[in-house]
Amino acid sequence: MLAVFKSSFGRDQRSVPADRLHTQVETFLDELRANGETVPSRNGRALCVQWMGDQWLYRTVAALDNAVTRRGTVTARSSSCALLTAR
């Protein structure tokens, strides 16, 4: 999970559209499976929903786009997921 967040978010990439994050998570899972790793059977969206429930991600409404935000909020109109800061 942390490797996914590190790959998806960064200092210059504080927000990611939710659909893009779902796709990225699925791509990472496919790559791990191809290398013989055991990974969850859920798809990218389901894992993001689980991570929101675990409070690693949170959903915000963004003004201009569907975005996932790390360490902050975005003002927007469409749904998004965001990475929470560890407490």
How would you describe what is shown here?
It is a single chain. This protein has 87 residues and is of the alpha+beta class. Helices cover 39% and strands 22% of the residues. It contains three helices and four strands, in the order αβααβββ. The chain has a two-stranded antiparallel ribbon. The protein has a two-stranded antiparallel sheet with strand order 2-4.
List the helices and strands and how they pair.
Blueprint: H1 2-8, E1 15-16, H2 18-34, H3 44-53, E2 57-63, E3 68-69, E4 76-83
Antiparallel strand pairs: 1-3, 2-4
Helix pairs in contact: 2-3
Q: Which key features would you list for this structure?
A:
alpha+beta, 3 helices, 4 strands, two-stranded antiparallel ribbon, two-stranded antiparallel sheet, 87 residues
In short:
The chain has three helices and four strands. By secondary structure, it is an alpha+beta fold.
How widely separated are the two ends?
17 Å
Q: Briefly note the structural class of the backbone.
A: alpha+beta
Give helix and strand order, one letter per element, not per position: HEHHEEE
| DSSP strand count | 4
- Rg value: 13 Å
**Number of self-contained structural domains:** 1
Unreliable stretches (pLDDT < 50, length at least 5) are 70-78, 83-87
Enumerate the strands of the largest sheet in spatial order, edge to edge or round the barrel.
Answer: 1-3
